[in-house]
Request: fold
Amino acid sequence: MFLNCHSYHSLRYGTIPLSELVIQAAELQVKSLALTDINTITGIYDFVKECKKVDIHPIVGIEFRRDNELLYIGLAKNRAGIGEMNRFLTKHNLEDIPLPQTAEKFESTIIIYPLENAPDQLGINEYLGIRPEQLSMLYLSKWNSKIDKMVILQPITFRTKKEFNLHKILRAIDLNTLLSKLIPTDYCTINDTMCTEAELLSHYQNYPKIISNTEAVIAECHFEFEFNTPKNRKFYTENQVSDMQLLRSLAYQGCEKKYGKNHKEAEERVEKELRVIDELSFSGYFLITWDIVRYSNSMGFMHVGRGSGANSIVSYCLGITAICPLELDLYFERFLNLNRKSPPDFDIDWSWKERDTILEYIFNRYGKEHVAFCGTNVEFKYRSIFRELGKVFGLPKEELDVLATTPLQNHDTNKVVKLVHEYGQMLEKYPNQRSMHSCGIIISEEPITNYTALEMPPKGFPIVQFDMHIAEDIGFEKFDILSQRGIGHIEEATQIIKENRGVVVDIRNPLLSKNEAAANKYLSSGNTIGCFYIESPAMRGLLRRLKCEDYKTLVAASSIIRPGVAQSGMMKEYIFRHNYPDQFEYFHEVFKEQLGETYGIMVYQEDVIKIALHYAGVPASDGDILRRAMSGKGRSKDALQKVKDNFFECCAKKGHPLQLSEEIYRQIESFAGYSFCKAHSASYAVESYQSLYLKVHFPIEFMVAVINNQGGFYRTEVYLHEAKMCGAIIHGPCVNKSDYVSTLYGKDVYLGFMQLQGIEQKLVDTIFRERKENGLFLSIEDFINRVDIGIESMKTLIFIGAFAFTNQTKNQLLIRAQIILVNFKPAHKQAMLIQEPIKEYTLPVLPRSQYEDAFDEIELLGFTVSCSPFDLLKTSFRGDVMAKDLNNYHQKTVRMLAYLIARKHVPTKRGAMFFGTWIDADGTFFDTAHFADTLKNYPFQGGGCYLLLGTVQVDYHFPTVTITKMAKMPFIADPRYNNTERERFATQNKLKEDISMTQRAPYPQAHEINLPRNKMTV
Reply:
């Protein structure tokens, strides 16, 4: 009888989580229930499942609103009805057309109008909804004559008085107003709650026709949905037979190309995979992915196929991935097996510059009616909750900042803050808005509006109204079309190399991307700044600890640095065994046979499958179920218990002692959730090698490419430092030689205008256009004559050295610019300049120190270009020990002077600590550890140079200085200012640092993990 229910998917309106709405209905013995969230179908599929569990007849529909005005409610008679409403809503969403006052004439949808928006005429499938409190209006002839077309309308929005208050808060957030300024039409009535059907019907006992109409509507609505059938585009060609013929042909062509003729092992693996692909009807998925990659190749784009899809030799032969599964012993079952009900998963990366071109191809090739992005529900988060609620309750911005940026326990305890906390706790995990999934695309067989309405976010590609979990639940396999800047680094570097040196680098050549000798030397020393995935301080430290000198070790390093492996203690144990391979015993013979490459340690997700298969005798496909259950991808605790019981039963059948099996299961359980699959690590390692090869052989070009693609782990300054260490000469932006991004002429790097703070994009575009159309600027007068510019922007360009080509000092340029611009307004300046030649002045010699230039650079770029930050220090001391010598000072106290690059927060049981990354005056990187007790007295004080005192600990070839004291060192006074001390020493505070915060529980200590290093005796 409840034909108008809102869940919390009625964004910033409904207050009831979907499952709790159904539970409440079951408790009140409601027999039928309609979910009609506002302008969305987000929750209908979960709603149907939840209703089936408790034997409630589910009705699905949409409540159509325009600017908070209820227009009408649509109820689907069947699946066709949902499609009708989806298409109706999609048209208005995508074309940004307001919803009409009356609904379209639907065939499979029942429309219910509120009395407030009753049309003059009602169609066959149209009714008026009358609320209990409106029944008195039936004494008026206007409404009494329409009883034959009336149904019960009892909206559901909240459950309790507290939720009613939450509803009003949500409305205030949505309307961006104070709670006290809401008016009654902004929110629902106090009656929008659920009761028993008997209570509801008691209001209408004198109007049997209204009751019978409502029962008739309910009887007409039967939304049946088959969740278990695939909804993706079924075939790439016309049918599965021709799909498989094409896939087989492509796979064997690729197999011959990759392995040569008559490679028995490869052909057997191809055949095995094709059988599974055919049986699971995934040939279309493979071929569509191949088609997307084929298009990418035709455009000359570089892509990286990673994820579990790289476990497949068919994907390798099709060119989707670049990893040979035979070389790395990769299990196809990790990607696809007959027991795996979830869809396969290809993750494919493109450059961030080229991804939109790929997306446009997919939408055009497979039809806009069949393609859309997955949606995602953006929930209210800690900071947004406090900011939003604080605004609603009228708190000033200063208090909002405090609430959002300080821990809960440090908040004030006044009445308003208590209300913010109380309702904030209720809002946690509530959806706040719908957004676009970062990469997941759906390609459907039927028009996608048969399942969902579409919305158009600012990005420009339509999205469905449900997330990836619901998409998977109802039978969609998403295609992950990702972007990353690492590929942009590689692609642009090859272009710059060609332009600057005339050398063509075929970076996709596997001889360049695996085990290149010079690259291996850089790898083992951690000289990897700028290189994809291996440039962070933690990763560089790991490479040095391992003396990583080959591809397979890099593959392992890419996985063991992951949180799951590190947390389980297996990273530390791997480092030990790699360095001391004769000082441990394999835990069991199976570990030696199957995990010998990684010293008997489970490093990859596939290792779970290997141990389950070869130790317990569990089939590989069941081993993957075990892995998925442990990773949290299994939705049910019962499922995990089932696979656990099966594991021990299989172990017992093979005669293994229970104690031994329990320890092995404990090891599996300790790391399976967060590790990489081996194929994923291998894909990352290939891309890391590609970028490393470019850094080794073309370092300046590579660093310019990194900067132009907006960096990686570090800020621009760090990459410029690396370029300088490789021989580059760095210049500030120049009006003649710079573009928006940085440019390279031989070894001269001219920073791009994107780095310059305080210059409008419009002015930059004008400079480039004028230069392109009329040639280089000859002088400052020529520039001002050709470019419409104000005195402040002109000063900025002069201060940063953009007119250095004139060979005049900045002070001379400033005087000339002032003389020219002070008398001319933009409206008539150009005509005046053309009519009257510029008068020449004899200017005095106006010297300017390099320190003034350096402070200009800090102010306008955030870092120095013309000198080192060490040159600006008051002290001439540069440290007793330099970074290159630290390995000689194990367990000795050292005093060093260093410039702060980055610091990473790490939670420990003793409090928060930080790892620091620095460069010394030689430009060499080194690392420090700062424990919680030391940080209390010697905290970080922002970017700049510090004097450090600490003890060196050399851990497997890698030195770290554990800091006991540190102090930030002052710069000289800023010579540009002569006024207050504050001005003279303020500029240095604009130096930056990279800070990484970690939100996780502290890792356990080695004794808590107790990972055995010897055989277990039982």
